Automatic annotation (TrEMBL):
GO cellular component terms, semicolon-separated: cytosol
Protein name: Glutamate--tRNA ligase
UniProt organism field: Candidatus Campbellbacteria bacterium CG22_combo_CG10-13_8_21_14_all_43_18
Role of this protein: Catalyzes the attachment of glutamate to tRNA(Glu) in a two-step reaction: glutamate is first activated by ATP to form Glu-AMP and then transferred to the acceptor end of tRNA(Glu).
Placement of sequence motif 'HIGH' region: 10-20
Length: 442
RNA sequence: GGCCCUAUCGUCUAGCCUGGUCUAGGACGCCAGGUUCUCAUCCUGGAAACCCGGGUUCAAAUCCCGGUAGGGUCACCA
């Protein structure tokens, strides 16, 4: 059996969206699985709609997702080859120049179609038969210099020795005519595999109005590429067991076209978020910080308060609570982190410091005891603070002790636990805030 | 509309080929409880589906037929 060679052939008339990325990824996975390779072919024959920025977006999207290709071609660079193939077809009387019909603009080149039935075996859907008569002598080129999509596509697949064409199911009805062209050109017929579409929540075809257009948008939102390809792979495919989180290596090992579904799959951000979270959790501290720091708004960068040992510890603290890195940015922008960057003293009132029906006097006593216990603590880590304070809380009532401490430090009804905050704030600032609260209660 | 494709919890899906082990399994989300000073995390539990109708069979989510619904495609765009 000859070498497996697949291709991803996007036209640079739009961004690399979720669906395209998955198609590329399946093509890539299949080639890798079979020890072959995938090539990238930019189909830029539509000069009006093709744009460089789209090509760049496609390239960077593939790069981000680590979808590698062994070679890259631009269809526009193969114009000479296309016209000579077209000439050959005309010379062999398999195609002919035809006058424009019904007021159509000019002469076009049509393929002679003898009709009959075209049958092909789709690797995912099985045998598909099409009566090809009503196609008529269809157009393959606008002129010798301007081949139509079908022609250029087939010519390139033939020349580039593509063994497997893996593409979206919207191409399934194009396949018969492409087979006709391929046969006229004398190429060996490739295997076809049409994968189901990715749907929007309302089951319609996923499009711009359903959110992010380019996969690069997901990069910007702080999704990890490993999470993205993992999730994408599971849209219409799964390894057949209960595993949900698979590395690229495992994906390659497990992948098979037979396990791809026939029905479309709805793109679900919630699940993507969950997958992403799994990957964030697995990041080492350094890997995490490297990315996290890019999501700190400018005004907070290098602007950590004096009392802060480091911004890094703060970022690390929120590692388990974000679902994507953009969540960090939201934390900063929402004021959620005000306890760290600048407490608003007006937020702290004696009523709020005191837990439910506790007395001011008792609360004050608790806070004083906390200060007393922390004053001489050498290593002011969250763990050590907890070791000092937890017994006190257990003894006098957890809420009665911990709520005042937490509120004194954060000025918020919802905040991290007091031990973590104390550790992040440092000894001096922690005691300063506690004393301020004690004063308020007097 | 023609042609083609598809159909299991709200969503992603296992099971279907090789009928019984399926009172249909897992995951996300949701709800409840637990852990907890709050929020989040984490743990436990719960609600939630075989599109409909016929047929074959002792037995059908699984096989067959017919509906219905959804999607794709019908370009001198890709």
């Amino acid at each position: 059996m000859s070498k497996v060679r697949t291709r991803f052939a996007p036209s640079p008339t739009g961004f690399l969206h979720i669906g395209g990325a998955r198609t590329a990824f399946f093509s890539f996975l299949y080639a890798k699985k079979l020890g072959g390779e995938m090539i990238l072919r930019i189909e830029d024959t539509d000069k009006e709609r093709s744009e460089k920025k789209y090509e760049e977006d496609i390239l960077s999207g593939l790069d981000w997702l680590q979808i590698g290709y062994s070679e890259i071609f631009r269809q526009s660079e193969r114009a000479d080859r296309h016209s000579s193939l077209l000439k050959k077809l005309i010379d062999e009387n398999k195609a002919y120049l035809s006058k424009g019909e019904r007021g159509e603009r000019k002469e076009v080149i049509r393929l002679r179609n003898n009709g009959g039935e075209v049958v092909f075996n789709d690797l995912i859907r099985g045998e598909i038969k099409t009566d090809v008569r009503d196609l008529g002598d269809f157009v393959v080129a606008k002129s010798l210099e301007e081949p139509v999509f079908h022609f250029a596509n087939v010519a390139d697949d033939g020349d580039m020795k593509i063994s497997h064409i893996i593409r979206g199911e919207d191409h399934i009805s194009n396949t018969p005519r492409q087979i006709l062209i391929s046969e006229a050109l004398g190429f060996a017929r490739p295997q076809y595999a049409h994968i189901p579409l990715i749907l929007a929540p309302d089951k319609s075809k996923l499009s711009k109005r359903h959110g992010a257009v380019s996969v690069i948008q997901y990069k910007k939102m702080g999704y990890l590429p490993e999470a993205m390809i993992n999730y994408l792979a599971f849209l219409g495919w799964n390894p057949g067991d209960d595993r949900e989180i698979l590395s690229l290596k495992e994906l390659i090992e497990e992948f098979s076209l037979e396990k791809i579904h026939k029905g479309g799959a709805v793109f679900n951000v919630e699940k993507l978020n969950w997958v992403n979270k799994q990957y964030i959790n697995r990041l080492s501290e350094n890997e995490y910080l490297k990315i996290a720091e890019d999501y700190v708004p400018e005004k907070y960068k290098n602007n950590a308060p004096d009392y802060s040992p480091s911004l890094k510890k703060l970022l690390l603290f929120y590692k388990t609570s974000i679902v994507k890195f953009e969540g960090l940015k939201e934390l900063f922008d929402s004021g959620e982190l005000r306890w760290f960057f600048g407490l608003n003293e007006k937020d702290i009132t004696s009523e709020k410091i005191v837990w439910k029906n506790d007395e001011n006097k008792a609360t004050k006593r608790h806070l004083k005891e906390i200060v007393f216990r922390l004053k001489n603590l050498e290593d002011f880590s969250s763990e050590n603070v907890k070791a000092e304070i937890q017994p006190l809380a257990d003894e006098r009532g957890r809420a009665s002790v911990l709520h005042p401490m937490r509120f004194s430090l954060s000025g918020r009804d919802r905040s991290p636990d007091p031990f973590s905050m104390a550790g992040l704030l440092g000894k001096e600032e922690t005691i300063k805030r506690l004393n301020r609260a004690i004063k308020l209660l007097s």
